[in-house]
Model the fold of this input.
Amino acid sequence: MAGWSEKTNAPLSNHVASWSCLQKGAIFWSAEKRPSTDGLVDNIDARDSTELQELPQFEKHEPTEDAPIPLKEKLITVFWIALNTLSTLGLIFLSKRVFSDEQLKACQLMVVMWHFTATGLVLFVASRAPFRAFKAVRLNPWDMLPVCAFFAGYVVLGNLSLTYNSIGFYQLSKVMTTPCVVLINFALFRKTVTRYMLGAILATCIGVSFTINEAAKTQLFGVIIATLAFCSTALYQIWIGKKIEDFAVSGPQLLLNQAPISVILLIPFVPFFDKIPDLSEVPIEILYSVCASGIMASLYNLSQFLIIGRTSALTFNIVSHLKTIMILSIGWYSEGKILSGREWLGVLLALSGGWVYSHLALKAKQRK
Done:
């Protein structure tokens, strides 16, 4: 998101010991060569845990240069990056349009259930021939229940934040997920960061606080929901990283199991929190937006996993920050918002702090 002779008449035990060391070195190199997405907002590392199967079966005496990436592979990577960017923008703006309808605004759970259903269907198709983007595995549903409950909860809070806040503030508040992850890691696991990382986190917090102060004057409830949303997202990111290790699965494998169970978990709550809409009174263009938002949610999740595996952590980091800037710019333009000097300063501090922290986190990971 770098890798880091023996004489033929030597005793056999020396050869065995040497080969054992080579195997250990190969395992270390294989486990470390893949980039990480630690410190990035809204990213869950979705790589297969099959490093041992990828070990070289022979000893390389001389280092060889990496083969150039074929043009076809480059074009495929560009396609998935473009699809991920467009699906991210589409999901946010379509969801905002859906929740602008008064009836659908009261159907938060049902909209989330539709997104989970669409995501599950697309991931299921992607795991089958001829695509085979990943290998589907079946996990114990009982073991999945706590994960799915937390997953559904943080997604619902995210949608509520989008409903009751402007697109710009919704997106900027999500930048606070990274500082929240750092704080929780320190409080629970005593994990520390460098003073430079701490300075970047402080800049992010100050920047977001400038925009929160402006937003709180008119939408205090939205600010509270946004705070709950990024705190729950941070908790989920920390927990899901541990669960991926415990279950020994990749991101898409876990999500394929999560999606249907999460839908089932939400069904009993629908009569208490949602109002069944009269679809005949909902404008047809809004209904089209509902359908399209589900498709965008599924394409977003699928492309997210694929570009993580095809790009470096730095590339993925750049794409993530570019998406944030695009969402903020388009959101403010569509809403006709004119930022004050204080808000401009807050945005610059928040984005710069997030970028610097992510860059430092990547460098720290590469040195391990």
In short: The chain has 14 helices and no strands.
